[in-house]
Specification:
The protein contains no helices and eleven strands. It has 130 residues and is mostly beta strands. It is globular and about 40 Å long.
């Protein structure tokens, strides 16, 4: 049984930082990719950052240079370090995982990759106040 459990969300003022974590268990892949997505009220879910099991990364243009995705392969823990947070970063943040078919590199080209991910966490709320 696959489980993805996010943690680390919270409230912060603009310019502040947060680090999200996602503990994965039961992934049925030897080669896999993971990602962070977010959904703000009234908006569609969007990709934020993605990483494959070898550590190659891809970012949405809106967060590039401010957010860093990383993966502890041994522990199967995914991280998202978020700096210089803005009110528009306020959203529910979701962790996702998928197998070799995940086209993680497309995220940096502004293309949707959500459908490539088979497993999703329950989400953690991030609120940034101005």
């Amino acid at each position: 049984q696959v489980q993805l459990v996010e943690s680390g969300g919270g409230s912060v003022q603009a310019g502040g930082s947060l680090r999200l974590s996602c503990a994965a268990s039961g992934l049925p892949y030897s080669h896999y990719a993971m990602g962070w997505f977010r959904q703000a009220p009234g908006k569609e879910r969007e990709g934020v950052a993605a990483i494959d099991h070898e550590g190659s990364t891809s970012y949405a243009s809106s967060v590039k240079g401010r957010f860093t995705i990383s993966l502890d392969n041994a522990k199967k823990i995914l991280y998202l370090e978020m700096n210089s947070l803005k009110p528009e970063d306020t959203a529910m943040y979701y962790c996702a995982a998928g197998g070799p078919g995940v086209r993680w590199w497309l995220l940096s080209q502004g293309l949707p990759i959500e459908a490539d991910f088979a497993y999703w966490g329950q989400g953690t709320q991030v609120t940034v106040s101005s």
